Please model this.
Amino acid sequence: MSEQFQAQQLALAVEQGPFAALNNAGRDAFQQAQIPNRKTEAWKYTSLRHLTEGGYGATASSHSAAGLDDIATIPALGSQRLVFVNGQLSKELSSNEALNNVTLFSQANSEQQALIADKLDTIMAGQNRHLFNELNNAQLSDGVLLHIGKNEQPQQAVQISWLTTRQDNNFTVNARLLVVIEQGANATLVEHYGSADSEQNSFTNAVSEIALGANARLQHYRLNMAQQDALHIGATHVDLARDAQYHSFHLGLGSKLTRNDVVVNHNAGGSHVEMSGVYVPQNKQLVDFHTCIEHKVAHCTSNEVFRGIMNDSAKAVFNGRIHIHPDAQKTLAQMSNKNLLLTNSAEVNTKPELEIYADDVQCAHGATVAQLEEKALFYMQSRGISKNEAEVMLSFGFINELLEALPDEAIANYLRPVLAHRFGRDQSLARHIA
Model:
């Protein structure tokens, strides 16, 4: 079955085009790679059965934007919005500002082409790269370039939405994003993966590469919000120059397969990472977050906080790694992962890692797995709150701290009712938090 999956995906590889060298290298690497299984350490808790047995060896046959406007809209955000439906740009759903300021690789001018050639596929490197990154290279025919020039500070956020709709046959979407933030610039990016409400039959393989120049700052939101049958494997690779700041928030609602890898490289002193995330799978969904922060040089800091709530028979995986290289003296790095299991059949596998090769550092990491506290439930019930409503309120309170900390209130207000609905499927139970 693995060989059949590889053959189907390679049939979608690009044979000739502007990225021929990258396509060929990706094809060769993917063809030689072994599909991960339970014996593969980085994938041991994440089954790829739905993907390898699903026959996702086609592209979408239609790209209708009908009925998707509300799904693509984040109220009150006021963003420049670029929307793709089943992998194809939808000018109908995109804003004029985004169409003018965000560039497709295929429409790049000579200066932008030089920038793409210089940066593309340079941030993904070493052991943090896996076979689906290579598959993305093999299938790359076009992508999105977001370039913020030196000292620029756009007032509006840039929202890039990748939406899917049901097709006659299972299909693959290859999504590629290259973000270059020049020295002293400051920007907000919302990377949104969604779908129509109907049962989906898509596999999205998404790779985002982000390069932050000296003293640049990026606020990055990555939101996985597709219908539960959509499959998603994503990777975010970030390079930080001197004094750069990368702030990010990651949301995983869950699906049959949702896997996200986040790798951040501290390449020069003074850079800082602030990373937080929430995952809330339910039913029989799976969410897998693998993060790695590479402290390669001295005087860099990072703070990472992820929280998960698993309901029904859902499963989550969190693997957070902080790698302190020998030259990374005076590093300050912290990581926290807290998990809440709402049922006895829910499951989480959490593995915080510290790998330290420098002796003058301050590092801390921790993980917890718990259920709702009986005393808190009893207290709320004694105040006239039903048990079911108390469970919803306590569950939401477990993650609301991270939502409250988001710098963009429009994003928090957009996500709050979405998350409330996950806990209170009877909306009367979530009336205090929606």
Remarks:
- The two ends are 44 Å apart (CA to CA).
- The first helix runs from residue 2 to 10.
- The mean pLDDT is 93.
- The chain has two domains: 2-268, 373-434.
